[in-house]
Amino acid sequence: MTDFDALAKVWDADPRRADRARRAADAIADAVPLRNSMRVLEYGAGAGLLGLALAGRVRELVMLDSSAGMIEAARARIAASGAPNVSADLGDLTDGPWEGEPFDLVVSLMVLHHVPDVCLLLRRLSNATRPGGWIAVLDLEPEGGEYHDPDFEGHHGFSRGTLRRAFSAAGYAHVTVRNALTTEREVNGELRSFGVFLATAQCESPAPVDVR
Q1: Is 208 a domain residue?
Q2: Which of 37, 104, 209, 210 gets the most CB atoms within 10 Å of its CB?
Q3: Which domain holds residue 68?
Q4: 13, 11, 5, 25: which is closest to 196 by C-alpha?
Q5: 75 within domain boundaries
Q6: What CATH number has the domain bearing residue 61?
Q7: Which residues pair with 40 in a beta bridge?
Q8: pLDDT at position 6, please?
Q9: Within the chain, where are the H helices?
């Protein structure tokens, strides 16, 4: 399992992460009708790069992550930015549902491939999204396992069909999946590019399942 508390201490060492977050924010803005009245959840926010890249385009942005180290880094970044409409909280929707006010938009970047039960998480994100609200998720296109170390136990990307079925089962409609950008990682001493998709959908109704 990836140690995100340890990674938080060196997250800013790779400037490609900040560039990827900016490109992801632009891709979301091109695909979703952002408004300055929107309340947004960034799930699996990490150190807050994507959220802060979006914060100036919406009313409120809440960052949620299960890593205390990442939340500490996100709060430091929020304080340094002076963004008045952004907060960061510790939380894990794989352990239980969102119990607060629903959001107009839920976003995540490179989170799903770390989650064992993707369908459960999408159902809980659906229940955190108001009817008519949006979800925008960026993650890996199918890859052969080179993106992570050999002992990585998560997913090696997602096919279009798998994503559409999972989003539809979670209560989302109008599902669209497209290639959005590439991300780079060193593999066996060589810099490799990996495709990243953007999946967007609207919440038709909360997922009709028990999400306790």
Answers
A1: no
A2: 104
A3: 4-203
A4: 25
A5: yes
A6: 3.40.50.150
A7: 61, 105
A8: 54
A9: 4-8, 15-31, 49-55, 68-81, 118-127, 160-169
Say if 34 falls within a structural domain: yes
Long-range contacts formed by 72-79: CB under 8 A, 24+ apart: 72/8, 73/8, 73/9, 73/11, 73/46, 73/47, 73/48, 74/45, 74/46, 74/47, 74/48, 75/48, 77/47, 77/48, 77/49, 77/52, 78/48, 78/52
Report which of 145, 173, 147, 177 is spatially closest to residue 161, judged by C-alpha positions.
177
Sign of torsion over alpha carbons 176, 180, 185, 189: positive
Total Cβ atoms within 10 A of residue 83: 16
| Residue tagged 């060589």 (tokens) | 190
* pLDDT > 50? residue 105: yes
Q: What does the pLDDT look like over 65-76, one tens digit per residue?
A: 999 999 999 999
Instruction: Give the 3-state secondary structure of residue 26.
Output: helix
**179-194, pLDDT tens digit by residue?**
999 998 888 888 899 9
| Residue 57 is assigned to a structural domain of this protein | yes
Residue with token string 């999408």: 122
CB–CB of 186/162 below 8 Å? no
Whether this prediction's pTM lies above 0.70 is answered by: yes
What's the total number of domains in the chain?
1
Residue 142's Cβ-count burial label (10 Å; 0-12, 13-18, 19+) is: middle
Tokens of 136: 């925008």
